[in-house]
Amino acid sequence: MNRSESLFNEAQRYIPGGVNSPVRAFKAVGGTPVFFKKAQGAYLYDVDDKAYVDYVGSWGPMLLGHNHPDILAAVKESIELGLSFGAPTAIEVEMARKVCELVPSMEMVRMVNSGTEATMSAIRLARGFTGRDKIVKFEGCYHGHSDSLLVKAGSGALTLGIPNSPGVPAALAEHTITLNYNDMDSVHQAFSEVGEQIACIIVEPVAGNMNCIPPVPGFLEGLRSVCDQYGSLLIFDEVMTGFRVALGGAQQHYNIQPDLTTLGKIIGGGMPVGAFGGRREVMQHIAPLGPVYQAGTLSGNPIAMSAGLAMLNALSAPGIHEQITAKTAYLTAGLRERASAAGVAFLTNEVGGMFGLFFTEQQQVNRYSEVMACDKERFNHFFHGMLNEGVYLAPAFYEACFMSLAHDDQALQHTLDAAERVMAKL
Ligand code: PMP
């Protein structure tokens, strides 16, 4: 038994499923989750000292690779000054200003501790601002695990076959209308029926929780115009895409301005952080300025702010996103070549530093139904083959993969060589 196996055995005695977040348990792909002890650049090191090229990046935050020196230095400096004050700090102001500069649709921003808190608070704000109860989301999109949003959810909920979680009151779930991603017909239909009752549309502007599904041309534009027509708010959940697909997020990449934006992952540089923000007029409804309540003991934590600010400053250097996008394109083209040489039906989707791998005969995968039609068993074999070869992919077919700036030629070549061997055996 290796150390991961013995740790997993022990973990299961004390922690439900042995993990603190469900997808980590390898339930979808089978086998024992790998326990890690350190990370550096593009690599993870497990408790048995095996190295892996990492395409999970802590599920998104590690856009610059693990242990970026600027972020480590900022955190070390901050720790010496105190761990938490529960009172305002200068670094929060600097962080808020930086976020509003990078994402201009955010005129004001409130820091929270996770993506779940960000989306939950944004939904409450949209409801409080509009005085309406209904919200629209899309099947296969995941916005964290708050009650209103755990309806036909993606990511782990989808992986484990519980997109509608027990424990969410039906009376609340009935206010969540779930439509088809990339399908404006379903949106027009819903709005023509109950548009005046809809507080907001929340959408992943690139869906990353049913693998990786970019928006088809016209989809985000269509959402913007239907919201304008009915006085509903458009919320871009950029917890995953923010600062990743472009410095200004998907809204910059696709040039669409949402009313509210939610952020997480990269904004904390690896520390637990989320944020929501948007139009001043809307954000002024949040307490203490307005009546919509939202709060947090550790919100704006100085260490988290230091990590996040160092991250955003480092990302603001010219050319970072171009480099990451080029790395993604190089890798996915290489993977398609290896698949084709091995006679494996395979395609990829990608936007900037996120991408998806699909084992399928289909010519494109743009819809939830097309995602569901892919060969998940084949992905599971590929996953384990790659794991064995020292490449760590997300342990579930429904997750996007993440590139980082630290993925150098050696890491990418290792991945492609591994894929060549694994694809040959699929
Ligand atoms: N929104 C999106 C788009 C996400 O991908 C996630 C997490 N994967 C969340 C919200 C929830 O964030 P957290 O896990 O930090 O609560």
UniProtKB/TrEMBL annotation:
PROSITE patterns reported in the protein's UniProt record: AA_TRANSFER_CLASS_3 (PS00600)
SUPFAM superfamilies associated with the record: PLP-dependent transferases
Known catalytic reactions: (S)-4-amino-5-oxopentanoate = 5-aminolevulinate
Cofactor: pyridoxal 5'-phosphate
The EC number(s) this enzyme carries: 5.4.3.8
Top-level taxon: Bacteria
Name of the protein: Glutamate-1-semialdehyde 2,1-aminomutase
Organism: Pokkaliibacter plantistimulans
Gene that encodes the chain: hemL
